[in-house]
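Protein modeling request. Please complete all fields; requests missing the sequence field cannot be processed.
Requester role: graduate student
Desired output: 3D structure, token encoding
Chains: 1
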Amino acid sequence: MKREKNISRRVALNLWLPIIVVVFILVAALGVIEVNPGLGYAILIGDVIYLIVAILCYEYTEKMINKEFLAAGFEQSQIQKQVFKELPIPYVLTNQDGIIIWYNEQFAEIVGQKITKKGITQIFPGLYKKVFPQNGQMKEYCITHEEHKYRVECRNMVFKNLEQSEGEIQEEKEIQGDILQVFYFFDETQLLGYKEESRKKSLVAGLIYIDNYEEVLENMEEVRQSLLLALVERKIMKYMQGLDAIIKGFEKDKFLFVFEEEKLEALMESKFSILDEVRLINIGNELSMTLSIGVGMNGGSYTENYESARVAMDLALGRGGDQAVVRDGDTISYYGGKTQKVEKSTRVKARVKAHALREIMLTHDKIFVMGHKNPDADCVGAAIGIYRLSKTLNKNTYIVMDKDCPAIEPIVEGIYRERADEEEDIFVTNEEAMLLKDKSAMLIVVDVNVPAMTECPELLKSISTIVVLDHHRQSNETIRNAVVSYVEPYASSTCEMVAEILQYIVDKPKLKNIEADAMYSGILVDTDNFVIKAGVRTFEAAAYLRRAGADVTRVRKMFREDIEHCRMRTAIINQAEVYMDEFAISTFDGEGVSGATVVGAKAANALLNIQGIRGSFVLTALQDCVYISARSIDELNVQVIMEKFGGGGHLTMAAAQLRDISLGEAKQQLKDVLQKMHEEGDI
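Delivered output (683 residues):
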């Protein structure tokens, strides 16, 4: 329509020339009539005839041009329609509401139904009106339809009003027209299939370590040692051959294997059953052999996969061994970890770490010691032990800790009583620590290995030299830039580890009585009076502290409960619910109660005395947060349960924190997790 008008205007211009000629002749004829009337009238008649002929020619020319234009336009329209119709890419046009206006043959083939005036969201539920592009944008979607996978490009297009002339310029907000959505469908089923096949055939690197090689063999007859090792190695080789893996032993207790990624799915579904198969091998050995497995995948290269496997193995060993860890990029999965870590009889590692720690401390002028938020007896005891070591080396030392925490109040009061004549305060706040730090400072982190759980994460980021001493099983988040990392999950407490370190220092620091009491209380609390995780080295550390001046009676008096806490603990036990015949669950509103989490933890310990109970859980509500204290004896790994809630700890002692949730909701979540893990065989 618009183009036709433009052509008509151009054709009309061709009429102006004859009109100008006619007017000129008319004027001339009028002038001639006055001189020669006969000639003037003849000219006038000729002028009229010329005008009539010009008009007739204009009308004929306009009709012919319009006719040819219409024919050409129709032909072009048919060609375009045919091209779009036979376009090999499925193509559909909808209005802004998603109602289909037009589509080509390829789109009709993949849909296979009458679709005019239907909504595209009815055909492809994965396409929502809310996610359609706006203002001329383009978006991509991935959808599945009848076992085919499509990449869909959607373009938002605005068709301007056809009556608007091409030369007109309007403000964007004044432009009027129809808004349409154009969808292009690209079938990527085959391509994705090839990618998936390539992924399945990609190689995965893995490591297998025998956790307790020396500990198992040292108590066996020499004849049986070879037999046991042969059985374990045969079991590992046979298992890996079933996965079409290439496996090679590179040390007496270490193996490297490589297999296709598609085999890993079966391995993960079986939850690495090789762990249980090796553990059950018994030919008279007192201890069962356990394995640790680290697997790395999707690293981009074989070298990166191997490095991922090494990191996964470090995590498995740091969590106590007897488990498999799969590292897929930044995603980490855990399997196994059902047995208690065997205590190492050798102290070589403790001696090496003690020497390294002393050398690093000698090169720094300021030393900060930091534990975790809401410190407990083990945290403050270990910090005080390191403080005494640092002061023996004549270093400026500060403990970054909340000294007003109810759990450590008896220890702090005892320290201040013994240091009444000293002006220096060994405890500093986070703000004071940030002001005191300088380039000569180093940081020793005790009883925690998760950056977010430290007392002052900002201090952790601002000091380059960091040492970590911890006994908790490692999680995904760890302090990775430590120059010395001494993490031993077999240890009962960090105080036990620090006590061993102090014994290997050349110039042994002389502990004050209250300092020895503090470290002894840390061991006492974490072992529940030498009941949980108390090994030979635990008692040796306790004996060292006793010789250093720790008094059992004094420590016992230090941690006596008041009558109200006893009543609260009894009330928690009374209202406990036995879930699934093997889990004791109780709740406690700790608002306004001093040391509420400690009361909950003690109640969780007491619930384990109920016959038939494998694990106990006490949920304490305090300041918009629910604290879960989880305990078990030896049959249940409560650490893996608490990891489901973002927490962690030990196999028999763990905890977690849930924020912005009620006690009832937290209890139900715990029940759901226990039910699911029990059904899946994880607990």
